[in-house]
Amino acid sequence: MRAVWQAARFAVRRRRLQTTIITLVLLVSTGTVVLALGLLATVDGPYDKAFARQHGAHLTVSYDPAKATAAQVAASASRPGVTAAGGPFRSQVVNVPETREDGPELLPPGPLTVVERSVRDDDPVDRLALRKGRWATAPGEIVLGTDYARFPFDPIGRKVTFSNGRSFTIVGIGRSITRSAQAWVAPGQLTAPDGLQMLYRLADPSAPAGTVTAGLPATASQSYLVSRRQATEAGTTIIPFLVAFGIAGLIVSVLIIGNVISGAVVSGFRHIGVLKSLGFTPAQVTCVYVVMTAVPGVLGSLAGIVIGNVLAGMLSTTLGDSFDLPTASGVSAWVDVLAFTGVLAVAVVTALVPAVRAGRIPTAVAVSAGAATSRGRALRVQRALARTRLPRPVSLGLGLPFARPGRTAMTVTAVAFGVAAVTFAAGLNRSLTAYLADSELTDTVQVIVPLDDGKPVSLAGRPGTAKVAVTRFEQAHVPGFDRPVQVKAYEGDITDRHGYRMVHGRWLGGPGEAVVGDPFLKNGGKKIGDTVVVTVDGRKAALRIVGTALVDGGDTVLTDWASLTSLLDREKPADSPEPSGPRTRLVTSRLEVTLTPGTSPEDYAAALRTDGIFAEPASEGIEAGQVIFFGLLTLLTLGLTTVAGLGVFNTVILNTQDRARDFGVLKSLGATPRQVLTVVLASMAVLGLVGGLIGLPLGLAAHHVVMPAMADIGRLVLPYGLMEIFPWPLMLLSVLAGVVIALLGALIPAGRASRIKTAAVLHSE
Question: Is the pTM of this model over 0.85?
Answer without folding.
Answer: no
